[in-house]
Amino acid sequence: MKPFLRVLAASTAVLALAACGSGSPSGGSEDTGSADDGGELTPVTVGVIPIVDVAPIYLGVQEGFFEEEGLELELQPAQGGAAIVPAVMSGSMDFGFSNISSMLLANSKGLDVQVVTAGAASTGEDGADFGGVLTTPGAGVTTAADLSGKKVAVNTLNNINDTTVRASVREAGGDPTTIEFVELAFPDMQAALERGQVDAIQVVEPFLTGGMNAGSTLVASNYVDTADALTIGAYFTTGAVADSDPELVKKFTNAMNKSLDYAQENPDAVRDVLLTYTKIDAATAGALILPSFVTEINRSGVETLAELSLSDGLITEDPQLDELLP
């Protein structure tokens, strides 16, 4: 029997959890086993974002990869990695999914962030990536350079999306310092664009295909413009958890890597599982562009993000990549 997948309904719950006391929710990984050997499963909380990037972890639960490692996952949705990082740091979650920039920021501030495995990467194909910048004909934006002086929505401020949008604008010859970034949840962005509240939106799947189906146009593949095969997101814990319970981290990483490999090899399964935790329809799920689901972190791309974060003022200290990355 597959482990029960308990998904909380709102990101506000995650923010509330982040303010709670410390201590691992799993209570450690002692005396764990799998359903096959009769051992009790260890409950593990993981912060996720309801986007295509995290499809592998849902598949891993569905296929029993975590149960095989003696783990029972509770997936807790949040608006972005900026909300998940403090929840993991506080001990309210055991692991989390976040964009690389949020983890660079946390590391540069001395937070004990430890990446355990990759999560999603760019396809590397301009115009055919799982993330991009959309606009409407009336916004007066035809290229990334035209985003200069415009209002652009991102899901959370000061993370990988505004950093890579600036990189696209800079590469196209525009002035990224004049962009006004606005924080909106992904599901709210298309409506805001259509109402003229913003001039452009940076979205990932399934909101990218959904927006294009609604009549918006793609003006930049910001991840592709930033670095080759850019690692966008990864799963992480704290160094304290990694040191105190290495067996738990090993089991989670093993199951997560199985899940990533399975997702990469079974794109139809990814599209099917999207229907279970997002509000998209089957037609959109069948049309969207999937990320690359790889188990290795592209360090050169992370170094590029670190350099951009420094130059854009997101961070003021060099991150310690040897401490952050596996």
TrEMBL record:
Keywords: Signal. Residues 53-269 form the SsuA/THI5-like domain. Pfam families: NMT1. InterPro entries: SsuA/THI5 (IPR015168). Gene3D superfamilies: Periplasmic binding protein-like II. Residues 1-18 form the signal peptide. This is ABC transporter substrate-binding protein.
